[in-house]
Specification:
260 residues; alpha+beta; Nuclear Transport Factor 2, Chain: A; 4-stranded antiparallel beta sheet; 4-stranded mixed beta sheet; 43% helix; elongated; YfjL_N
């Protein structure tokens, strides 16, 4: 085999490797041509179907699992009007999730939930001297999203859905007495700020189990908690015992349902 033929074969082999690499990358991140087709198809789609929403394309990403693109669009006049349009690699629109995300008020729910989370961190974390790992002030799980209004302003004193206070903290004292103490402290802060809550969920982790770095996972193995404790029972005598009995009954009820 002469030198010229060797160079040709080497070049062909190198080109083949490049093509294989491009095909491999394309299977995970898509390709510029298909991405452009997806954006163009999405633009035509919103111009036709959602022309009244003032939508703009914010980004387009490839979903290698389904072999399609999702184009995220958002309104310039409504912060809660944002959803994705799903387009195949040939520029054909498959579907959109406007009904699920916007019409069902999930975008509104998520925005308000994030606002509540930030309020809780600042309010509870700033007022109480506990070693918190998690602080949240979410809506109750069974909240009716139809009561939300798109782009509504959050009124923390008159929330559109019932709230629950949910905290996790580290302590040397892992007992229902400590849980009751934390609950009463939370109740005082919420009462002072005129923030109504329906339920209290508190979990205490042993201080000895606190991770040494943020990269370590937090273990709940040795934790103690009460979940969804009704606010109307916070004034009962012997609160630690009341909470323990409540949690025992709640867990037994959950386990009984799981066995059915």
């Amino acid at each position: 085999m002469n030198l010229k033929m060797k160079k040709i074969l080497a070049g062909a082999f190198g080109l083949g490797l490049i093509i294989l690499l491009l095909l491999f990358v394309n299977s995970f991140v898509g390709n510029p041509v298909s991405n452009a087709l997806a954006k163009k198809a999405a633009q035509q789609y919103i111009d036709t179907k959602y022309s009244d929403l003032n939508l703009k394309i914010e980004r387009s990403n490839y979903n290698f699992k389904f072999g399609s693109y999702f184009v995220f669009v958002k309104s310039g006049t409504s912060e809660d009007t944002a959803f994705s349009i799903y387009v195949d690699s040939y520029g054909n629109v498959i579907r959109d999730d406007y009904e699920y995300e916007v019409a069902n008020n999930f975008t509104t729910f998520r925005r308000l939930d994030e606002e509540l989370r930030e309020i809780a961190k600042e309010m509870i974390g700033g007022e109480l001297d506990y070693d918190f790992d998690h602080i949240a002030l979410p809506f109750v799980k069974e909240g009716d999203l139809s009561k939300l209004e798109r782009d509504m302003t959050l009124d923390i004193h008159n929330p559109p859905l019932p709230l629950t206070i949910d905290v996790t903290l580290f302590s040397q004292d892992v007992s229902f007495s400590k849980i009751a103490e934390v609950a009463k402290a939370l109740e005082a802060v919420l009462h002072e700020r005129d923030i109504p809550v329906r339920e209290y969920s508190i979990r205490i982790l042993p201080l000895s189990d606190k991770p040494q770095s943020e990269n370590q996972a937090v273990s709940w193995v040795n934790s103690l908690s009460v979940s969804y404790f009704p606010s109307e029972r916070m004034g009962e005598a012997n609160l630690p015992q009341v909470m323990e009995q409540f949690e025992t009954g709640r867990v037994a009820e959950v386990n009984a349902k799981d066995k059915k």
